[in-house]
Design brief:
single chain, 89 residues, mainly alpha, 2 domains, 3 helices, flat
């Protein structure tokens, strides 16, 4: 598999998803072990929730309600879309 090929194996896609989950759990646990208090846990929860909502906004809300003709392929695609939109206004 070349670096530029798309990931097509469903097994590899699921493995990648589970690795993302594992990384998130380990990072959150590391932060809570460094600073084990309720304010750290609350701020971590708020940050996690906010980033999830931002992701939903970028890849669902904008695509379905703001510009249905555009399909986003990733964060770079979204930033390029914002750049082009800003230049055209």
């Amino acid at each position: 598999m070349r670096l530029t090929d798309d990931l097509t194996s469903s097994r590899a896609i699921f493995a990648k998803g589970w690795l993302f989950l594992l990384c998130g759990i380990l990072a959150a646990a590391g932060l809570l072990l460094q600073s084990p208090n309720w304010s750290t846990a609350a701020l971590l929860g708020i940050a996690l929730w906010s980033f999830c909502r931002w992701y939903y906004f970028m890849f669902y809300v904008v695509e379905h309600y703001v510009d249905p003709a555009f399909r986003f392929a990733g964060l770079g695609s979204f930033l390029a879309y914002l750049w082009r939109r800003k230049k055209s206004q």
